[in-house]
Amino acid sequence: xxxxxxxxxxxxxxxxxxxxxxxxxxxxxxxxxxxxxxRTAGRTxxxxxxxxxxxxxxxxxxxMKEHTSRLIEAVAEQxxxxxxxxxxxxxxxxxxxxxxxAPVGLPLDTVSVKIERCWHRAYVAFGSNMxxxxxxxxxxxxxxxxxPAIRVGSISDMIVTEPYGGVEQEDFxxxxxxxxxxxxxxxxxxxxxxxxxxxNRERLVHWGPRTLDMDLLFYDDEVxxxxxxxxxxxxxxxRRFVLEPLSQIAPYKMHPVLKKRVKELLEExxxxx
Length: 273
What we know:
Low-confidence stretches: none
Function: Catalyzes the conversion of 7,8-dihydroneopterin to 6-hydroxymethyl-7,8-dihydropterin.
Shape: elongated
Number of strands: 11
Pfam families: FolB (PF02152), HPPK (PF01288)
CATH superfamily of the largest domain: 7,8-Dihydro-6-hydroxymethylpterin-pyrophosphokinase HPPK
CATH topology of the largest domain: Alpha-Beta Plaits
Keywords: ATP-binding, Folate biosynthesis, Kinase, Lyase, Nucleotide-binding, Transferase
Catalytic activity: 6-hydroxymethyl-7,8-dihydropterin + ATP = (7,8-dihydropterin-6-yl)methyl diphosphate + AMP + H(+); 7,8-dihydroneopterin = 6-hydroxymethyl-7,8-dihydropterin + glycolaldehyde
Family: Belongs to the DHNA family. In the N-terminal section; belongs to the DHNA family.
């Protein structure tokens, strides 16, 4: 990934724990590495295909002056999120905020916080087999669209499938979607559960009927095993109602553990069936 670098932009702003810091203000130095693709800009000599670093400097200055925080950790987090959400060509950012006048009562050069944040690509499966199935699904997807840290991309066709797991119930309406997010896997899981709860999802019977089910399938190429979440979703290779719609929008997505593409997993499942 290409980078545009800003070094030691001086911003005078009012951030800090102590009253004199918020009342009088102090100098901060901001360093930023903007991750973007600049090949087209380099070949065409057209700023339209790159990020205007002058505009970025102005936005950093304005944001830090208008939004006051106690911790420079909060300043860095909020500023990185703001820039990633507002600059369409920005894929990721390394952001360092230095505090030269840190009131620690000891001689030092500077204190700083440095973070890396970027857009992550994830895939989500959704399904419903109670009431107005399409309405439940649309409502759940809207919850994702309403979150500023999520960009919903491709959405598969919805397919009617028989229930999975041996519990007698109505047929499901299933599909998959692609999204970009600034959230961690656990934070994204919380948003998916929020969407389910909005549709009054109840977890009474394992593999039972539900108004809305939203499962995180992939998150970049990460492999995660937590009590509340496993990524990639362990049931992906067994579920046609996941693989079929997923192959519509991401046939060449590689499973990071099995080292097989989605279309290959679907073909293998069809052979087994």
